Amino acid sequence: MRKLQVFESISVDGYFVDSCGDMSWAHASRGDAEFGAWVSGNASSGGDLLFGRKTYEMMAGFWPTATAAAQMPEVAKGMNAARKYVASRTLEPTWNNSVLVKGDLVKAVWALKKKAGPDITILGSGDVAAQLGAAGLVDRYQFVIIPVALGGGRTVFSARAELRLLEQRVFRCGNVVVTYGVE
Fold first, then answer.
1. Where are the alpha helices (DSSP H) in the chain?
2. pLDDT digit string (tens) for 66-115?
3. 140 in the Ramachandran plot: left (φ > 0), alpha (ψ -120 to 50) or beta?
């Protein structure tokens, strides 16, 4: 069975967006070449992606552009080549290799996990991650912990989750990447 992983940038106090819904703090450049190389390698590692509508629209508005290709060519190549599932009741996806997830999200993702294919990563999309985590469908969480405290916002967890640390890596810029398995 395919694994489902959540990949999310979070603040040190555990939020993926602040209390106003802003996440620009997560993309502040700190000039760490090692972290940049890790991001490029992580984005080109293959696998399918799952987005909620808001994250999909943000990603589809950037990664297919010449600006994305110039700024982060490896990441843009990986993002554009990947199969992308989008959970939405209103959107008709247009980004290449995109498939609309129809009907009940939990049932649809359970069916995707049972189909042969690469693992699936929920990229951003905190509401989708929270819903699928609460349903017991998430196998791993990978967080990039950004050294900023927001004092409030939204978390990817809507229910208690018991996790075990699988990997951790610290970067000079202060970002820490942690991967947890679900108990």
1. 33-43, 53-60, 66-71, 73-81, 105-114, 126-134
2. 999 998 888 899 899 999 999 998 999 999 999 999 899 999 999 999 99
3. beta
Please say whether the dihedral angle defined by the alpha carbons of residues 160, 144, 52 and 119, taken in this order, is positive or negative.
negative
Q: What is the DSSP letter of 136?
A: T
Domain map (residue ranges) of the chain: 4-182
Its CATH class, for the domain covering 4-182, is alpha beta
For the chain, how far is it from start to end, CA to CA, in angstroms? 17
The DSSP 8-state label assigned to residue 95 in this structure reads: S
Segment 137-175, tens digit of pLDDT: 999 999 999 999 999 999 999 888 999 999 999 999 999
**pTM of the predicted protein model:** 0.91
